[in-house]
Amino acid sequence: MTYIKKTFFKSILLFFVVCWSSSAQKDYKLWLQYNKVDNDNLKTEYLSNIKEIVSLGKSETSQIAFTELQSALDEMLGKKFENKSITTGDHNIIIGSKESLAPEIQKEIGNFDQINDEGFIIKSISIKNKKQLVITGKTDIGVLYGVYSFLRLMQTNKSIQNLNITDAPKTNIRILNHWDNLDRTVERGYAGFSLWNWQKLPDFIDQRYIDYARANASIGINGTVLTNVNANALILTPQYLEKVEALSNVFRPYGIKVYLTARFSAPIEIGGLKTADPKDAQVINWWKNKAKEIYKRIPDFGGFLVKANSEGQPGPQNYNRDHVDGANMLADAVAPFGGVIMWRAFVYSEHDANDRAKQAYAEFVPYDGKFKDNVIVQVKNGAIDFQPREPFHPMFGAMPKTPLMMEFQITQEYLGFSTHLVFLPKLFQEVLESDTYQKGKGTTVAKVIDGSLNKTKLTGIAGVSNIGNDLNWTGHPFAQANWYGFGRLAWNPYLDSETIADEWLRCTFSNDENFIKPVKQMMMQSREAVVNYMTPLGLHHIMDTGHHYGPGPWVSNLSRPEWNPVYYHKADKNGIGFDRSKTGTNATAQYAPEVEKMFDNLETCPEKDLLWFHHVSWDYKLKNGQTLWNGLALKYQEGVNQVAAMQNIWNKTQKYVDEERFKEVQMLLEIQHKEAKWWRDACLLYFQQYSKKELPLGVEKPTQSLDYFKSLKFPFAPGN
Amino acid sequence: MTYIKKTFFKSILLFFVVCWSSSAQKDYKLWLQYNKVDNDNLKTEYLSNIKEIVSLGKSETSQIAFTELQSALDEMLGKKFENKSITTGDHNIIIGSKESLAPEIQKEIGNFDQINDEGFIIKSISIKNKKQLVITGKTDIGVLYGVYSFLRLMQTNKSIQNLNITDAPKTNIRILNHWDNLDRTVERGYAGFSLWNWQKLPDFIDQRYIDYARANASIGINGTVLTNVNANALILTPQYLEKVEALSNVFRPYGIKVYLTARFSAPIEIGGLKTADPKDAQVINWWKNKAKEIYKRIPDFGGFLVKANSEGQPGPQNYNRDHVDGANMLADAVAPFGGVIMWRAFVYSEHDANDRAKQAYAEFVPYDGKFKDNVIVQVKNGAIDFQPREPFHPMFGAMPKTPLMMEFQITQEYLGFSTHLVFLPKLFQEVLESDTYQKGKGTTVAKVIDGSLNKTKLTGIAGVSNIGNDLNWTGHPFAQANWYGFGRLAWNPYLDSETIADEWLRCTFSNDENFIKPVKQMMMQSREAVVNYMTPLGLHHIMDTGHHYGPGPWVSNLSRPEWNPVYYHKADKNGIGFDRSKTGTNATAQYAPEVEKMFDNLETCPEKDLLWFHHVSWDYKLKNGQTLWNGLALKYQEGVNQVAAMQNIWNKTQKYVDEERFKEVQMLLEIQHKEAKWWRDACLLYFQQYSKKELPLGVEKPTQSLDYFKSLKFPFAPGN
User: Most buried of the four, A107, A141, B70, B464, by CB within 10 Å?
Assistant: First the structure.
């Protein structure tokens, strides 16, 4: 063992000893590597189609668009273009917003109405028989998005001839939720600590703030909530607002608005009031003035994200008011300035142990149509809490008169932290494609989110950030793909996750097909792998207490019933699973009839959701003919095998990847494989106590006892 | 204001928008930039003197030495040398330990006895009329140190012809103390959070661990205490020792030993014993077995650093035993394996409010000669606590039969965190040069520390680390110089701080004299500046409560008298200062007679230490003819002016420094200037209440009221 470790380290040393000057950087540069184009034909095509750059805008955003284009082309083609203010000759790239374009060019571009204010058009045109490539939009931000989109073509080695691309984001608010505390710890953060260095702000602007804005702009993210939903009211005091203002000044030219979390009891804590009752005149006034104060500093402040009456957070119910009272009161405060209130639907009562999955729907659906126009209700993708797999949240489609925004979790609270490689866009896509049937077949969650289903004006997608101050931003090099993929899906919820994986790999590593093909496959199967080795067949929330790292199906001693894994798997001698069908809690009734019927019936319920909706006997026959017990055990084994397969794929990529990132991923996959076995052994040993059955052939014998697994403690697990 | 800010940000944006690919890296590379040699003559000299590299060693350390040399020469000279195993032709660089050298080469090198095991010899020799440059030592680590020393010659553009350099460290233990907690917060850490990612260890080896080891090896640091002196016993459990072992495997080839802090009550907390009494057989046995367990994993484990019976930490006194009992018990446990115990002398009683400055001496000096051979007592540079200026600690020289090691604080707990530019080697040098007179004139602190005074076998210097996971390691680019300077002084306590500044600047930024001269001057005056604007004329410990950031001379409400600034400055209508002379606490009696006399007498007491030793009337005439009040006020003003002068110097360096580091330092100096004024105004307004005198001419009027300064709160100040 020790010997193995020694040689293992030796090999690392030989690789890493002096490579910091290049590699550390690669990790940091995310998907904006702008690798040299080494395909000569392609390079020739690119150079022959780019003679000059003509940048017409004058704003900071326009300057960013030009410098981005200039430096990217310099890195990819080894040619540094100057900024020509007037067009001479042909094959220029002309970048500028609609009104900056000469009339004859505008005419060639055609109809700008097909895009919204953030959209762009990339079009090869011919003016006086001279070919030109125009990147334009209605606004400078649109142009910037267009530039990043154009550069992505080159990063992925696509042709740039005869382009005619029209694209625009399908949602208004594409936003990161940072669960960052003022002490720089990050709730559920696994990539170091908060980027926001409050002590040195406002006067010290860390380069990372700019790099962060740049990375987000490159994928179309246009908002960021700087602070934790479990909010501290101090962020709303002048001492901190001055710092927030400084960040907003950095982000603004990149098209990113700053938002804050509002602690509902702030009027008491920092306002000196006796109450935070949303109907109290002083409280209403306090919030109005607070909004004025903020908008005086930050004219384009986005608004507030609120977690109220959830998990002990204060809220309107403390004053016998309801969510509508609370949200609308805040909405009135920010409305004069164009601000929005993102009100979270993640609530579950301390007094109702019946079925936590039903409570958000039960509490919110009756409010449909009662919220002000600038309120949007933020709903997690599933009814419980960011599990490896959950059926789509029944609220989607159930509140036709209320804007609902999606809340995805990019950070992997329940999916192995930043240690496990899990490509989340596959999960996101599964949710967005789910058919709610709320207006008949084909009314997918995506159509609810982008507003097309109910003609909703205010739309959005939020992602709980996985970003920290680790050198590589996200802890795991492949977790960068989850940040990237979230941004791309927020821009277009109909994108295919495989396309996203392909884009990201090419931009981040290499365009070599021998690398792309297998590694893309590895990414695409990674999400099913984690479901299999953690929570197969619809199991959920059986992670260990608090930190949620590793298995804890045996946990049953927590004060609130719905905090205990046993509440969710309900394993007993008869079987396993949570009966949410008619015979159980009837949570299925919260879905549209077609979906309700499908989930309700053991025969039609997809096996991937089986134990989510049904308590099933150990001997129940699965579609593959296996008993439930054997099928469950084989699923756990399959998850372990899938991770082994991922390792085999990655171990063959050495010649396509820099030493450091290759080693990093290799080490992390090794840990993931070890921990997949841990999950398999701990869960099967525990459930076996109830099934009283042998492990089927093909499932490896556990190497440790159940007591050993129960004894494992992680006192300083991050993000907890 | 807002407008100014806007344009300020604009300028930043234009600079930084796309430069991450190069600049972030420069910050990260510390003093190992290996900039291209652009002086052609020099480059020619270097190339003509380096034809080949012949590396004779086979160990990991030898491989590191070669690859370091190879990559550095590649970066500096643009030529990639191969590793020749045999010497052909002339002008080779031959690197290898003594026994790896051919006899005729050994003969040419001469006497190896002039160096110790970590020393090196760099010598230009001639073998069969062929010139060769040999870098050798008794061990491979010595050779590695030699390689770094040789590369430093080139980094600082020195000639490499006819070299004959013999160098060896003057202390055994050159060690960093990381006050890192297991949750990755760092006590008194201002550069982000702990480098040690305990969750991903042992199987994930962060590149930073290797880069950290490399940076330390390049300046001769050979030990690191991974954990906080306010220790958590969990670090001694197998779960964590496995992780510590992984780190030790990374650090070993760089000549760095791992040490841990031992919580004295660990036998109770993790051993299940009822007591931690150092005379208890079970306790003695528990520590013996714990040592065995550790050394089984880490054969070269360095030993334990212990903070006992200090600031609430457990220790032998809890069992009516003394420091000797505690230290020797642990010493016995690690002695069989060659381990050492570093026992801290930083103690002050909760029950003796008389004079905290006297207590460590009073408690420890009686134990002189009573500690086991493998115990070394770690003494802070001054008798209070890492102030901007303190007289040298009276314990130095007062325990001739006991090894004493120095504890410097590299992290700037009381010196403006990582926001203020303060070149600490100037402070360190001042302490090391102080004459204790314990064996007559010239018995400096340095001679105590390097063991030459009392022929001490075990010697060492510890530095409380300023390293965190910030991209630039230390928060402030110039704080890197304090890490560097600490290492250089630990190697040779007689080095001049100006030489260190010169080396560091050349290695880190540029060799251009137009840059070096003024910036070196800026560094050299920076320490006196902070003394002036924070605690001039011997004032001390008047920082605000807990976080120690900013002024708090008014604080008087803390539970223990010696925690309150008023305890230290004792300002009243008669004057200001702590009377530690015969007429006061008689702390001066703890020094040798010559020093005692000097400090005791108001006339001979250096004015820089005046208020440390004397309570002086506001009208007292200073040597410059000013009254104490006017002189004090003018000192505060001088500090502010000195920071302004530092800004003027830095603002002229733009053309010698990369954009990012230039801007970083510029922004930080701006904050430092603002905060120097804050210190001046707050302290003078406060003291003015007692002096009842006007501010003299030349001192700017305060812009805020004393109440305003008192009202400032820093709820989430880092490191607290």
Answer: A141
Q: What pLDDT digit, counting tens, does each position of B658-691 carry?
A: 999 999 999 999 999 999 999 999 999 999 999 9
CATH number of the domain enclosing B547: 3.90.1330.10
Of A16, A198, A250, the CB nearest to B716: A198
Q: What domain range includes position A431?
A: 173-495
Q: How far apart are CA B369 and CA B377, in angstroms?
A: 11
A720 close contact with B: CB closer than 8 A: no
pLDDT at A15: 42
Is A433 catalytic? The answer is no
For A:540-599, CB contacts with B below 8 A are: 549
Spatial separation of the C-alpha atoms in residues A64 and A141, rounded to whole Å: 10
Residues B571, B690 contacting (CB under 8 angstroms): yes
| Cβ-contact B209, B168 below 8 angstroms | no
Q: Which residues of A408-426 are buried (b: 16+ CB within 10 A; e: fewer)?
A: bbbbbbbbbbbbbbbbbbb
Q: What length is written for chain B? A: 720
- Cα B92 to chain center, whole Å? 37
Q: Of the candidates B495, B482, B403, which has an alpha carbon nearest to the alpha carbon of residue B167? A: B495
Cβ-contact A134, A109 below 8 angstroms: yes
Q: What is the pLDDT of residues B116-127, one digit of tens each?
A: 999 999 999 999
Question: Cα–Cα distance between A712 and A706 in angstroms, integer?
Answer: 10
A200 and B419: CB-CB below 8 Å? yes
Residue type, B213: A
Q: Chain B: nearest CA to A369, how far in angstroms?
A: 40
Geometric angle at alpha carbon B665, from B659 and B670, rounded to 5°: 125
User: Both A396 and A304 in a single domain?
Assistant: yes
Q: Tell me, yes or no, whether A489 and A407 share the same domain.
A: yes
In this structure, the answer to whether residues B129 and B177 fall within a common structural domain is: no
Q: Can you tell me the distance from the alpha carbon of A614 to that of A602, in angstroms, rounded to the nearest whole number?
A: 7
Residue A29 lies inside a defined structural domain of this protein: no
User: B550 CA to chain A: closest CA distance, Å?
Assistant: 12
Using one digit for the tens of pLDDT, what is the confidence trace for B442-486? 999 999 999 999 999 999 999 999 999 999 999 999 999 999 999
How far apart (Å, rounded) are the C-alpha atoms in residues B210 and B60? 13
CATH of the domain at B132: 3.30.379.10
A385 part of the active site: yes
pLDDT at B656: 97
Q: Which of A508, A497, A511, A562 is nearest to A354 (CA)?
A: A562
Write the DSSP symbol of residue A701. P
ipTM score here? 0.95
CA distance A214 to chain B (A): 8
The answer to whether the beta carbons of residues B368 and B379 sit under 8 Å apart is no
pLDDT band at A20 (very low <50, low <70, confident <90, very high): very low
> In this complex, is the C-beta atom of A293 within 8 Å of any C-beta atom belonging to chain B?
no
Cβ–Cβ < 8 Å for A590, A566: no
- Pick the range with the lowest mean pLDDT from A530-534, B348-352, B470-474, B637-641: B348-352
Could you give the angle at the alpha carbon of B499 between the alpha carbons of B498 and B503, nearest 5°? 115
Same domain, A194 and A249: yes
**Single-letter residue type at A460:** G
Q: Can you read off the two tokens belonging to residue B220? A: 């001769």
Looking at residue A518, its pLDDT comes to 98
Token digits for B557? Answer: 């409400």
What per-residue confidence (pLDDT) applies to A23?
Answer: 55
Q: How far apart are CA A20 and CA A22, in angstroms?
A: 5
CATH of the domain at A355: 3.20.20.80
**Is A26 part of any domain?**
no
Q: Report which of residues B14 and A355 the model is more confident about.
A: A355
User: Would you name the residues of B annotated as active-site residues?
Assistant: 311, 385, 413
| Closest alpha carbon within chain B to A63 | B14
